[in-house]
Amino acid sequence: MDRRKLFKNGLTLAGGTLLASAAGARIPGQETGIGGLVQQNTSSTTPGKRKLGAKLEVSCIGLGVQNMSRTYQTTIPSRTEMHNIIRTAYDKGVTLFDVAEAYGPLECEKILGEAVAPFRNKIVIETKFGWNIDPETGQWSQPGLNSNPEHIKKAVEGMLKRLRTDRIDLLYQHRVDPQVPIEDVVGVIKDLIKEGKVLHYGLSEPGVQTVRRAHAVHPVTAIQNEYSLLWRGPEEKIIPLCEELGIGFVPWSPLGVGFLTGAIDANTKFAQGDIRGGETRFSPENITNNLALVEVLKKWAEKKQATPGQISLAWLLHQKPWIVPIPGTTQMAHMLENTAAYEVKFTADELKQFNTEIAAIQIKGERLPSFVASLSGVEAPPKK
After folding, report:
1. Cα separation of 49 and 39, whole Å?
2. Which of 75, 121, 322, 383 suits a disulfide with 181, CB 3.0-4.6 Å?
3. Over the chain, what is the mean pLDDT?
4. How many CB atoms lie within 10 A of CB 193?
C-alpha cells in the first residue's frame, strides 16, 4: 500500500498511524530456539518466555508482519516467502505475532492467517482495530479513526475470518479515538471477551489517563508504543505506569525503523512513500549527529560478537522482564538474527557502561512527522 496515502486518509479526521516494527539487522542469527534473558518475577513462567499482564505468556521476542504485503520501500514481497519466514520463526520458538487490520489494509492479517494455520493453537496473535476501514473490502468508508462499538464488533468479525481463527489472543485499539469514551471501547471488548472472540486487550500509543480509565473497567494486558534506543519517550510515563498496574509492554519499531541495524547512513535516500523520509531524525542536518549512536552499537556488537541490531534488542530485553519487542522484517536472515538476540547478555557492569555511553548522545530530530506524532498520547473523551 502507499503509506503516505494511508496516512493522508487516516489523518483527515485525526486518524491513526500504521507504524510498527522495522526490518531486522544484517546477518543470519544462530540456529537456536528463542529463549533466555528472562528475569521474571514469577516462577510459573516457562524459561524463554515472558508474561504480558497477569496471564498471557509469549516468547521474549515476537515477529511483526506489518510490511509483509508491501515494504517501506513500497515493493511487494513474495507471499510464499513471507509464509516461510513466519513458519520458520515459529520453528525457532517465536510465539507472538503482531499484525493489524490497517496493514494492507487487511492483507497482512490474511498472510498471517494462511501461514500459522498448521500451528494456530500454539501461538499468540495480536492485532489492532480502530480505523474507518470496511472489514470486507479494505476500503475507507470515510477518512479517520473509528472506535464506535458497533464498528469494533464488525472489525473483529472480519479479523477472525482473515486470521482463520475463532479468537484473537490480544486485541489492541490502534490509536485512541478522541470521539469515543474509552469506557465504551472497553465495554464492547468485555462483551467480546465473554463471547470468547477476544482473550486479552491492549492499547497502542495511548494517553496515561486513558490507560488508567480502561484498566479500571477491565485489566489491560499490554501497551504497544514505539520504544528503542533511538526513541525512549515511554520511559517518562508509560513504562512506569505499566509497572505500577502490572501491564506488559510491547515496543514497536524496536530497531528504530532499521536505523539501529546500521542500514541507514548519511547517504541514504528514501523511496517515495517511505515514511522515514519525512522523519527529521533522518534529515541531513540531524543524521550525522544521530549516527554516533550506531557507532556505539557497532563497538559493542564487535565486543559481544553480535550485530548492532542484536545489541539493540538485547538492551530492550534487559530493561524490564515484561517487555517483549516485535521486530518486523521481510527477509529470512534478518528474522533469524533478530530472534537470536536473546543470546546477547550484559553483566551489570557492562550494562552500566553501555548506558553511560548512549546517555552521552542526544538524538536530534522528531521520531515521526508532526501530523502523525500528534496522535500519540491522546486522551479519550470523558464518559457522559
Report:
1. 10
2. 383
3. 89
4. 17
Q: Is there a catalytic annotation at residue 342?
A: no
Query: Are 361 and 293 within 8 A, CB to CB?
Result: yes
% pLDDT > 90, the chain: 80
Dihedral over alpha carbons 222, 227, 229, 234 (to 10 degrees): -90
pLDDT at residue 46, as a whole number: 56
Rg (the chain; Cα; Å):
19
SS3 103: coil
Cα-based torsion angle of the residue sequence 279, 280, 282, 288 in order, rounded to the nearest 10 degrees: -170
Q: Burial, 303: exposed, middle or buried (Cβ in 10 Å; 0-12, 13-18, 19+)?
A: exposed
The 10 Å CB-count burial string (b at 16+, else e) for 322-338 is bbbbbbbbbbbebbbbb
Helix axes 149-163, 107-116, angle to 10 degrees: 40
Q: Are 84 and 331 in contact (CB under 8 A)?
A: no
Residue with cell 546517555: 359
Assess contact for 257 and 72: CB atoms under 8 A: yes
pLDDT at 230 over 80: yes
Please state, in angstroms and rounded to a whole number, the distance separating the CA atoms of residues 85 and 80: 9
Look at the pTM and tell me if it is higher than 0.85: yes
**Which grid cell sits at 344?**
546477547
Q: What is the largest CA-CA distance in the chain?
A: 57
- Distance between CA 60 and CA 40 in Å, rounded? 11
Helix (H) or strand (E) holding 87, with range, is: helix 79-91
Compute the distance between CA of residue 248 and CA of residue 234 in angstroms, rounded to an integer. Answer: 13
**What angle, rounded to 10 degrees, do the helices at 107-116 and 79-91 form?**
50
Q: Give 32-68 as a DSSP string.
A: --S------S-TTSPTTEEEETTTEEEESS-EE-GGG
Region 219-233: mean pLDDT is 98
- Condensed to tens digits (0 to 9), the pLDDT of residues 77-99 reads 999 999 999 999 999 999 999 99
| The predicted structure's pLDDT at residue 40 | 34
Residue 6 three-state SS: helix
Task: Please tell me which of 44-48, 59-63, 73-77 the model is most confident about, judged by mean pLDDT.
Answer: 59-63
- Residue 27: predicted pLDDT: 31
Residue 227, helix vs strand vs coil: coil
Residue of 90, 103, 172, 342 with catalytic role: 103
